[in-house]
Structure formats: structure tokens, C-alpha cells
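Q: I'm writing a short methods note and want an example of a predicted protein-small molecule complex. Could you take the sequence and the SMILES for S-adenosylmethionine and return the bound structure as C-alpha cells? Please keep the output block clean; save any remarks for afterwards.
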Amino acid sequence: MVSVLLIGILTRFTDLLLLLVRPRLLRPYGSLWREEFRHTPYRARRTFEVIRALNASGQRFRELIYGETPLLTAILAFRRAGVGRGSRLVDLGAGRGRVLLAARWLGAEARGIELIADHVTRVEAPLARVGARLQVGDATQADLEDPTHVFTNWLALEPETKARLIERFRTCRPGTRFITVTRPIEAPDFVRHSRRWMLFTWGIESVWIHEYQPTEPPPGVRRPA
Ligand SMILES: C[S@@+](CC[C@H](N)C(=O)[O-])C[C@H]1O[C@@H](n2cnc3c(N)ncnc32)[C@H](O)[C@@H]1O
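A: Understood, no commentary inside the block.
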């Protein structure tokens, strides 16, 4: 508990230092932080809305365990994966959208998909003002034809949910890069580039970068003779 508190203080401090370089992002960051005090995202409640969302996605309550990626961690991982101006990043399981601010910090387009509507409604407006879109939805059904980079902090997902998510990843364009936290994508066609230990709000975790290189051409595209 003490270590989580210390990590919290340290990462808030580094977040704020980074935001001094991009003062436009300070306001939405402040809104995210204020909402965390008003209603913590770290204690999921079995509300009617939460149970309905879980029933629809076929997931369990324990898959909603919450944790965030500090800005410095996200920026370093994204840079390593080649995120920059002209990139389009999607965060699958975006929580309250802290990661989207890291993508905007790098000049990329940022979109987040989050299952729990309460997370989204609390912060979508301040995020939208700096061009970051946070939407309610099931990541396993997300439209992934457009992104150049996909991030997922899937530490709490059950193997069945991960498997459905990986099937969805296959709807991405070849060359799309994937940044995953805790575990790599264990499936053919996702070529691993690197693994790094990085700091998260709950401790140190592995961050994996992969590239989607399908061996079979996408449906409708013929292999050259
Ligand atoms: C560990 S948090 C990560 C938050 C954020 N991506 C970050 O790294 O700062 C995981 C989030 O995924 C959400 N989630 C779980 N299953 C989901 C699904 N099928 N579709 C969208 N979001 C989901 C949870 O509600 C939770 O907010």
C-alpha cells in the first residue's frame, strides 16, 4: 500500500512536469484527476449498468480491475513503437483516458474504447476539447480498420476475452503496431519487437511491442502470382 502511494506521488509529479511542456493538456488532466477524487475508478461497483455491460460482453466482474498508465510510461512506450504526428492510436480498455493524453502529447490522434459508461461520461468532454475521443464500447467489437497503433493494458482480462480481442486485432491493417501490458500477444502473425519493464500505478510490468504481419492476405486481396 505504501509503495502504491509513493508510486502515485512520483507519477503525478512526472506527469505534471511533462504537461508543462504541453500546457494545453493541463486542463483535461486536471479534470481527470478531479474526477478521481470525486469517484475513484479503483473500486468497481456492481451497479445495474456494470452488470448489464458485463453480460453483454460475456465477461466477469474481476476483469474490471483498474490501473492506469502514467504519462511518462505511455510516452516512452509509444515513442518506442513509433507513435508520433500522423499516427492514430486506439486504447482498448481506456478507463478514464489518461493514456489518450500521452498520445496527444506526441501529436497523434487518440481514441479510447471503454466498457464502463461511468468512466466515459465523467471525462469525455474535457478530453474531447483537446482532440481525444473516449467512447463507450466493447473492445472485442471495436472498429480497428483505421489505427496505426493499438494499446491495451489487458492485465485483468480472462484468457477467453483475450482470445476474442486477438481475433479482433486481425481486422487491423498489416503493419499495425500493438503495445500490450503484462503479457504479449501469443498468436501467429504478431511479430514481437521488444519487451521492456516499465512503471504503472500498481508497480512494475512488462510492456510488449508487436507488429501485425499476416502470412495470409486479408480477405478479398489476392496473393501475387
Ligand atoms: C487496467 S484498466 C486500463 C486503463 C487505461 N488503458 C490505462 O492504461 O491507463 C482496464 C480497463 O479496461 C476496461 N475493460 C475491460 N473489459 C473491456 C472491454 N471488453 N471493452 C472495453 N473496455 C474494457 C475496464 O473497465 C478498465 O477500465
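A: Remarks, as requested: The chain is about 35% helix and 20% strand. The two ends are 61 Å apart (CA to CA).
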